[in-house]
Structures are given as C-alpha cells and as structure tokens.
Design goal:
The chain is mostly helical and 397 residues long. It has helices at residues 41-49, 82-86, 105-120, 124-138, 146-151, 155-161, 167-180, 185-193, 196-203, 209-223, 227-234, 239-248, 257-270, 279-296, 305-318, 325-339, 345-362, 370-377, 382-390.
Length: 397
C-alpha cells in the first residue's frame, strides 16, 4: 500500500502525493477520514432515507437523520488552504459522515453479534435499519470497526443485500462495503473473497445515479489499495469503461458534478500504483487527462477545479514510471508548461510537480522564456525550487 513517492503521512501533508482515495491523504491509501475529493453523498442519503424517517430510529431513541458531511466540497480557488494546496490526493478515502456510532464498545459488540440474524431475517424494515446502523458505525472517523464487522460474519449479508429489490437498501449496503474497502489490504481481500466486486461492477450502470456513484467510490477505494486489487477492478466488464466514459465527457457534462469528481479521483487510482496497468489503460487515462487540461487552458471553457486537479494528478502518477516520461511530455508537456500560470494554487502545484518529473529527461517547453522568468520570480516556493533544480534546459528538438 505504499504510495508512489515520498513516504506517506497521515492526512494532509506538504510532502505527500495524492493518496489513492479522494484527494489529500497518503499511505493508508484509504482512510475513513475527510478528504477533499469526496462526493456529496449526504444528498443521496437524504433522498434514500426520507421514506424511512419515522421508523428509522437509533438505539438511543434519536431519529437516525442523514449524517452531516465530514468532507465539504473543495473551497473556491481563492480560499484554498496553503497546506491543502501542497498536499496530495488521498488514496481510497471512504464516504465518511460525522455523528456516526453513538454506541459504547460493549453495545457495538452486542450489535455485531446480533446483526447477521437481523440481516438474514424476513423483515425488510428491520434489515434496512440494521444495514444503516452498520454503515454509520463504519463511517466513524476514529477507529471504525471494520475488522469487527468482517469477523462478525456480516460480509455475505452485505453482498446479498447489494441485490436487494429496495434501492435504499442497495445504497446503504454499497456505502457500508465502500467503508470496508477503506481499510487495510487484508480487509479489502476479505471483501473481494466475499464476492462483492462483480456485484458492485454490475451496479455501476444503475439507473439510480446515487447507487452508481457509490459504486464508483467503492471501486476507487479498491483500486487505490495497490496493483493487485487495481488489476482486479480493471478486468471487470463495466467499471473501467464507465469511469473513462464519464471522464471523456467531463467537460460540459450534464452529470452530477460529484459523480464526475469521484470518477476523476478513481481514474487517478488506475495509474497510481507500480507496476503500471496495461499500456492501453495508461494511454487512455493520459489522453483523457490531457483533454481536460487542454480545455482548462481555453478561457471560454469552464472546467471544474476538483476534476482538473485530480485528472492532472493522473499525469503525475504516470510519470513515476520512466517508461512513460517521454510519452507524457510529448502529449502534455507544452500544455503543462502553459498551465503553470493558472490558478488555483493546488492545481498549479500539481502541474509543477509533474513538470519536475518531466524536466530531467525532457526539459521544459519555454520558447519565449516566460516560464523560466516566472520560476525565477517565484523560486521561494517549494515546488518551484524543486522544478528549477530538476530542469535540464530546453527539450531536445
């Protein structure tokens, strides 16, 4: 689960690269903690739970209303925090919601002991309330009981409920599985062994976009775990194509922006780990990211900042393999050199870091000298200094 560059730290950090899970967090390629690129699944949860508001009551007697989001949408460009701008996308962060799990350890133990029988029972409302409680416990920011859930024997029931006829139950089950996939590689292996992955793959084109988006999140967590689980996802019949289709249409799309942002993050996880995936995947990801980057350079085209940042991280990840450095430079080197002058800072920093990987072998595209002049003016910035040090001069003709 090691990240592709500097040793990872635990959340936002100046030295980190995007970790495989929605925007800025490292080596635990998936952490049940808030990260920038998360989707707003609270909206979906609200819609899914509305019908059950009166019956869905927590153990302490309080109404189990939709949990407040722990990870708001990214701030506007002029409000991006400096530390966050220097940090890296997170690897496999699960949908996390605050306010989950008001139970004492003993109550949690008792709940997990009884939950399998409830989920196997005939009462659909009881099943829904139980699966919602499971999801909320797994959404705790501190020490979510992932292993406890797995050891309790709940996984086969969660997989079965992914095929439930009630959409809100499918949604909650997919959310719970997503959080399980935010755990360790061993946790992910248990989820894979339980047969969840092909079922999730079959749901990614669900007409219910909230369910489809949740599946993207789950698959993003799994691809962020490392090359073995990434390759497991890439071999599926639907997931890779769906994510790349969404990203190919990301500019000017009519889809929910949270779906596109999640797909941008998941696409980066396709190429994050080493060894890289098959060459056709690498090139499709790079071509897609280049299209989005080129669109952002057109002042007449509006491109979502989070989508732009995460897709550009894809180019950065690919450059970690020397085999693809010249390919990325030939495809996007000139666009990246132009993008240095764009805001916001978190995007510019990804561009600088990507150019730093290209510069030693390919130099920098700077025919009029403006880029080097800008670098000299801004050499007090960390990533500017690193690029200056890496620059080998103009690219070969």
């Amino acid at each position: 689960m090691a990240s592709t560059d500097p040793p990872a730290a635990a959340m936002l950090g100046d030295e980190l690269e995007p970790v495989a899970s929605q925007q800025e967090q490292p080596d635990a390629h998936k952490a049940t903690a808030a990260t920038p690129a998360v989707a707003d699944t609270d909206t979906a949860a609200t819609a899914m739970e509305t019908a059950a508001t009166t019956e869905n009551t927590a153990a302490d007697g309080t109404a189990a209303a939709p949990d407040p989001a722990a990870a708001p949408d990214a701030a506007a460009p002029d409000a991006v925090d400096a530390a966050a701008a220097d940090a890296v996308p997170a690897v496999g962060a699960a949908p996390v919601r605050a306010g989950a799990g008001r139970m004492e350890p003993g109550e949690i133990n008792g709940f997990f002991e009884s939950a399998p029988a409830t989920l196997a029972g005939p009462d659909p409302q009881a099943r829904f309330e139980c699966i919602t409680r499971v999801r909320r416990l797994l959404s705790r920011e501190d020490n979510p009981p992932i292993r406890q859930c797995i050891d309790s024997g709940l996984l086969p029931h969660l997989v079965r409920l992914l095929g439930d006829p009630v959409e809100r139950t499918i949604f909650e089950s997919a959310w719970a599985v997503t959080n399980l996939l935010s755990g360790t590689s061993e946790d992910c292996a248990h989820v894979v062994a339980a047969g969840a992955v092909p079922v999730l793959d079959s749901l990614i084109r669900s007409p219910n976009e909230d369910i489809a988006e949740q599946v993207v999140w789950a698959m993003g967590n799994l691809t962020g775990d490392g090359p073995e689980h990434r390759d497991c996802v890439l071999k599926l019949p639907h997931t890779t194509e769906f994510i790349l289709e969404v990203m190919g249409d990301a500019v000017g799309t009519t889809r929910k922006i949270s779906m596109v942002r999640n797909c941008a993050w998941a696409m980066g996880n396709f190429v994050r780990s080493q060894p890289p995936p098959p060459e056709p995947i690498v090139k499709r990801v790079c071509e897609t990211a280049f299209h989005i980057l080129s669109s952002a350079l057109d002042p007449e085209v509006a491109v979502d900042t989070d989508v732009l940042v995460d897709s550009t991280w894809s180019l950065h990840y690919v450059c970690s393999n020397p085999e693809y450095v010249c390919y990325v430079n030939d495809l996007a080197g000139e666009a990246l050199a132009t993008a240095v002058f764009l805001e916001p800072r978190n995007f510019r920093n990804v561009v600088l870091r990507t150019l730093t990987r290209l510069a030693p072998e390919c130099g920098l595209h700077d025919p009029d000298g403006k880029l080097h002049a800008w670098l000299e003016e801004n050499k007090t910035e960390k990533f500017v200094r690193e690029l200056i040090e890496a620059d080998s001069g103009p690219p070969p003709k």
